[in-house]
Design goal:
There is one protein chain. It is built from ten helices and ten strands. By secondary structure, it is an alpha/beta fold. The protein folds into two domains: 185 residues, HUPs (Rossmann fold), CATH 3.40.50.620; 102 residues, GMP Synthetase, Chain A, domain 3 (2-Layer Sandwich), CATH 3.30.300. The strands form two sheets. It has a five-stranded parallel β-sheet, with helices on both faces. Strands 6, 7, 8, 9 and 10 form a five-stranded mixed β-sheet that branches. Strand 7 and strand 8 form a beta hairpin. The two termini are 40 Å apart.
Length: 327
Amino acid sequence: MPVLVRPENMERITTPALAERFIEEQIADIRAYVGDKKVLLALSGGVDSSVVAALLIRAIGRQLVCVHVNHGLLRKGEPEQVIRVFRGEMDANLIYVDAVDRFLDKLKGVSDPEKKRRIIGGEFIEVFAEEARKLEGIGFLAQGTIWPDILESDAGIKAHHNAGGLPEDLKFSLVEPVRILFKDEVRVVGKALGLPDGMVYRQPFPGPGLGVRCLGAITRDRLEAVRESDAILREEFDKNGLAGKVWQYFTIIPDVRSVGVKDGKRSDEWPVIIRAVNTRDAMTATVEDVPFALLSHITDRITHEVKGVNRVLYDLTPKPTGTIEWE
C-alpha cells in the first residue's frame, strides 16, 4: 500500500536527484499495489493529473487507461497538447472523448455561476462513468490529489476536490501517487518525468474552465472569443517575459455589448476584460503592473483578431475586494 501520510522529516523535493528518488520509490510501490490490474485516470491536462499519468505510465505502461474529456471549455490547444504528449510521445492508453456539444447543450441559457458549475461537474462525472463502464479489468482509480488538498480537507477549509462522485457500481480502490507532495514538488517531479514546460508550469485553471470566464449564459460565439483572446494574452505574456513572473492571467467576456466603430461603421460587440494577478496563497492577490505599451499592443491584437470584440479593459481590482475569478 503506498504511503498515505507525508513523513514529518521528509526532505522537500527541490532537485532532479530528489525527484528521481521519489519516482523510483513510487514505481516500486505502484507495481506492488496494482499488480496486473488496470488503473483508470481522468486526465484533464492540468499539472497534477498530467504528472500522475506520466508517473503511472513509467510504472505500469498501458495498464493505465487515461480518459480525456473535451467539454469545450478548455483553453486553445489544450486537448491537442494532451493527445500529442500522452498518446503521441508517451504511448499512453488514452481515450479521447469529444463531449463539446453535450456540455454546451446542457449549459444553454444557464446564467447562474453555481448552476453552471454543478452542470459541468455533474456532466463530467456522467461522461467519465460511461467510459469506465465500457472497460474491463479496472481495479483502481488514479487521482491527482496533493498534500494541500489533504490539509485543507482535514481543516474544513474546503471539500476534497478529488473525493467521491462516481456511481456506486464504480467504486475502485484509489491510487494517489503524489498525495504527499506540495505543488512545487509536483512540478519538479513532472520535469524529471519529461513533461513539457507548458504542462509542468501550467497556470491555475478553474475546474469549470472557460465556463466561468464566459460570464452569464454561455454562447458558442462568445466562448470562442474568450478562448481566442486568452490565447493572444498568453502568447504576448510569453514573448514579453511575463509568463514566469505573473501568477495568473486570463481574459473574461461579460454578457454585455458596447458600442464601437469598425471600418467606419457602428459596431455593437463585446468587451474583453484582462485579469493579471500575483499571489502566494490565493487568499489575497495584487494586480500586475503590466507596461502600458504592452497593454496597448494586446488591445490592438484582440480588437482586430478576435471576432465580435471591439473593446478591451484591464481589471485593476486586488483581492480583496475582488476575487481572482469573476464567477
